[in-house]
Amino acid sequence: MLVLTRKLGESIAIDDHIKIMVVQIKGKQVRLGIQAPKETKIHRQEVYEAIQDSNKEAATASPKSVSQVADMLKRGSASGSDNKGS
Length: 86
Known about the structure:
The protein is an alpha+beta fold. The chain has one domain. Helices cover 36% and strands 23% of the residues. The protein has helices at residues 45-59, 63-78; strands at 11-14, 18-26, 29-35. It has a 3-stranded antiparallel β-sheet, with no helix packed on it. A hairpin with a 3-residue loop joins strand 1 and strand 2. It is elongated, with a radius of gyration of 23 Å. The termini are far apart.
């Protein structure tokens, strides 16, 4: 891990497209500003871990839950409701 020291208003660059700047220091908290291309996904670590956990759960859906969703979809299309215009 690379560890850098930065002061308020100073930044670091990652490649040519990502810039991270220290925008505020208040007590024990540091506020960072991040400039990156829109296609770059940026998350706080705890949010990233929650997304990963959710993706793992979805990928390991039981056959029973998959068949329940299929039944719900069949019932929805059989009733003729396509939610257009309502």
